[in-house]
Amino acid sequence: DTEVTQTPKHLVMGMTNKKSLKCEQHMGHRAMYWYKQKAKKPPELMFVYSYEKLSINESVPSRFSPECPNSSLLNLHLHALQPEDSALYLCASSHPGGQGVDGELFFGEGSRLTVL
Amino acid sequence: SQKIEQNSEALNIQEGKTATLTCNYTNYSPAYLQWYRQDPGRGPVFLLLIRENEKEKRKERLKVTFDTTLKQSLFHITASQPADSATYLCAVYTGGFKTIFGAGTRLFVKA
Questions:
Q1: Is the pLDDT of residue B64 over 70?
Q2: CB distance from B102 to chain A under 8 Å?
Q3: Integer Cα distance of A68 and A50 in angstroms
Q4: From its phi and psi, is residue B9 left (phi > 0), alpha (psi between -120 and 50) or beta?
């Protein structure tokens, strides 16, 4: 069982809805990530938080809004999404090293998002 | 441009044989490289990490090699089992919290 918990597992939303994806870890990791993965494609990095501060935004559209309320929680707020945003959204965490990641990424099971 | 290439064709092997998967990368000089397993509809699970100064790493039936001159990593599963059937992702750490993934190779092990 993964130690990174993502909710909900499945989400269907219309293009005018506002919803949020949630991620929680209790491994003491201080780096947390959002990746997006479409079918038969690699996970693509969206955002990275290090010590609760946004470190990387990979030019993600503003309809995706990340939030890191504390060291254990990571949210992804969704608003006015497009059908092409339908994908598996993966949260991950890791130990941050001196200049970045220190080793492996621990992934959650993902949230399957469908935008109608 | 920077690329990570894995064989996009599925690999079909018989139970008990050794599966060998390839990962080639261009325009990176990674401090380390990782391999993950991903089952359908689930998140990737970490398997092995190999650093740039290591040639080979083993863990149970798994072996990874890393050739920084060829810019290539090979991933071997010995005595393969049907339960090893999954997609295997190669991942390159490019620095500053960025880990970039290949598209993966789908492995099918037949009983």
A1: yes
A2: yes
A3: 9
A4: beta
Residue B17's φ and ψ, nearest 5 degrees, are -85, 170
B90 in reach of chain A (CB within 8 A): no
Band of residue A102 on the pLDDT scale cut at 50, 70, 90: low
In chain B, which residues have their Cβ closer than 8 Å to the Cβ of A110? Answer: 41-43
Handedness of CA B15, B71, B104, A57 (dihedral sign): positive
Output the DSSP codes for chain B.
Answer: --EEEE--S-EEEETTSPEEEEEEEES---SEEEEEEE-TTS--EEEEEEETT-SEEEETTEEEEEETTTTEEEEEESS--GGG-EEEEEEEEEETTEEEE---EEEEEE-
Least Cα distance to A96 among A27, A46, A44 occurs for A27
- Average pLDDT over every residue of A53-66: 95
In whole angstroms, give the CA distance from residue A116 to residue B22.
38
